[in-house]
Specification:
Layout lengths: L4 E2 L9 H9 L19 H18 L5 E6 L2 H13 L5 E6 L2 H10 L4 E7 L23 E4 L1 E2 L4 E2 L11 E4 L16 E5 L10 E6 L16 H6 L9 H16 L2 H21 L4 E2 L11 E6 L5 H10 L2 E2 L10 E4 L6 H18 L1
Helix pairs in contact: 1-6, 2-6, 3-4, 7-9
The structure holds pyridoxal-5'-phosphate.
């Protein structure tokens, strides 16, 4: 068996020990004679899997007691509608910070549910930098302020937590959740699709402060109503059981590695190798402002884009896949989430050097 170094932006590489454990438990979970996929979501076996996953996630992120953790479906794109449906009703308006493709999608979707104010935009820098907090034009009457904490496509990331006063901060953390410690109490709501840093697709994690629950617009579908999901321990409808199980194994793995502080050190070490090389090369280029560079998604361009295909082919031949940049920006992108080992980044940089020596 040969496993590749998979630089996919998502669904993304998972820790090998997690996959091995899932394989071992595939036919018979803990002697119960069935696979997790075959269990009733209300049976004691799955209820224990669900409870453990939630408790591990709470522990990793130090989620305060006045927050609910919901395991939902619909992905982050679903949440682009579900968040305003549940939260915008308070005042009918919300502030959004535009920092790239994903926040632009959130903004577009939210407009169906209330008045959306783009309080700051990275457009002037072609979305290569996060607008400074001092430039944000926030509305004190907004129901919430929405950010995307890591723009998976553009590779810009907040390395600070915006202060929004009494207006709750809402963050799409799909592509950097669990990559470092965060102070959950600074946020009103955090949402993330699982398939970047937590597990398989199909599961969406929502962490929401209690006082923000219970204001859903009447049009909100029941399955997407935070209050109904909170009252039913995320089992108002059948939850994505297998995805929750795998995410639980990932949480356990992250904890065993030393938790989020250890993840942060590991991610900083990987990013330093890759950005360090990019910055010293005249052949490759990353366009993002130094202070706002993502530790998770590193886009870069070759000096001559006619070499892109050769670069990707060579990478593939060396067991490194999914390095092609998003179609909207072109070039390359290396996604180096928690589960990407440092060896993968070293192998990538060694190949980049080799390619530069050949074509530079
Ligand atoms: C991947 C991603 C999404 C899309 O998630 P879906 O699961 O496809 O809905 C949204 N936001 C960010 C920041 C992402 O990285």
């Amino acid at each position: 068996m040969t496993r590749v170094f998979n630089f996919s932006p998502g669904p993304a590489t998972l820790p090998e020990p997690v996959l091995r454990q899932a394989a071992d438990e595939m036919l018979d979970w803990h002697g119960c004679g069935m696979s997790v996929m075959e269990m009733s979501h209300r049976g004691k076996e799955f209820v224990s899997i669900h409870a453990e996953a939630e408790s591990l996630l709470r522990e990793l992120l130090a989620v305060p007691a006045n927050y609910k953790v919901l395991f939902m479906q619909g992905g982050a794109i679903g949440e682009n509608a579900i968040v305003p449906m549940n939260l915008i009703g308070k005042t009918g308006k919300a502030d959004y910070i535009s920092t790239g493709d994903w926040s632009k999608k959130s903004i577009k979707e939210a407009r169906s549910y209330g008045k959306v104010n783009v309080a700051a935009s990275g457009e002037a820098s072609n979305f290569t930098a996060i607008p400074k907090r001092s430039e944000w034009k926030l509305d004190p009457e907004a129901s919430y302020v929405h950010i995307c904490s890591n723009e998976t496509i553009g590779g810009v990331e907040y390395h600070w937590t915006p202060d929004t006063g009494n207006v709750p901060l809402v963050a799409d953390m799909s592509s950097n959740i669990l990559s470092r410690p965060i102070d959950v109490s600074r946020y009103g709501l955090i949402y993330a699709g699982a398939q970047k840093n937590m597990g398989p697709s199909g599961l969406t994690v929502v962490i929401v402060r209690d006082d923000l629950i219970g204001h859903a617009l009447p049009i909100t579908p029941s399955a997407f109503n935070y209050q109904l999901q909170a009252e039913n321990d995320s089992m108002f409808n059948t939850p994505p059981t297998y995805a929750i199980y795998i995410a639980g194994l990932v949480f356990k793995y992250v904890k065993a590695q030393g938790g989020l502080k250890a993840m942060e050190e590991h991610n900083q070490a990987k990013a330093a190798i890759l950005y360090g090389y990019l910055d010293n090369s005249a052949f490759y280029r990353n366009p993002v402002a130094m202070d706002d560079r993502s530790l998770m998604n590193v886009p870069f361009k070759l000096k001559d884009e006619s070499l892109d295909d050769a670069f990707l082919k060579g990478a593939q031949a060396r067991g490194m896949i999914q390095l092609k940049g998003h179609r909207s920006v072109g070039g390359m992108r290396a996604s180096i989430y928690n589960a990407m080992p440092i060896e993968g980044v070293k192998a990538l940089v060694a190949y980049m050097k080799e390619f530069e020596a050949q074509h530079g």
